[in-house]
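Sat 14:20. Reprocessing the chain from the morning session after the first attempt stalled halfway. Input below, unchanged.
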Amino acid sequence: MRLNAYLARAGVASRRGADELIKSGRVTVDGKPGELNTFVGATDVVRVDGREVGKQALRHVLLNKPRGTITTARDPKGRPTVVDLVGGDVRVVPVGRLDRDTTGVLLLTNDGPLAHRLAHPRYGVEKTYVADVTGEPGDDVVSALAQGVELEDGRTAPARVRRLGPSRLELVLHEGRNRQVRRMLEAVGHPVVRLRRARYAGLGPGRLRPGAWRELTRDEVRALRRLVGL
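Finished this time. Tokens:
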């Protein structure tokens, strides 16, 4: 396991934060200064500022994200984050992002390899969104969204789109660009009023109310691992 992943798994810091600790010379592996490419073996002793740290148990959490929370571990402006909502002694971080006003399914974990593959576009993990929009999109709009929309960072991949009501659409995407659904709908002339992620990698919120969370079951974790080839 790479040293930064080990530190993240130990709950010391995020991977970026771990990189900074390593570069500042505060981390040792078996008494030698750690480097960004240092690999930690099963018997290696890792210390930060002279204090030994160890890997924590893996956690996989499903949160029904409420509106107004930031999808990050810490917010410099002091706003509430999704990590603030999840209890427990083992630190977890979000997989991917939902913007502040988007609600719905969000996974958090300290399982670095799984989180990386779930968030990587190569593995085509499905994300289902339900959007309430301005106006009433017609068949031409649904078709345009399904075929892909030209955005400032390139054309979006084809998606599955269907109407759930006069001003409500369901979109199933395999991409995860920043604010992608909002930008797609604005590009076709129907800006988002409310946006919710209804499913992620086959997981829905179930009975979780906004702000509530639960640990994934072993079967759910196994299914996620199979989905991304782990």
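Helices lie at 3-9, 15-23, 82-85, 112-119, 139-147, 180-187, 218-227.
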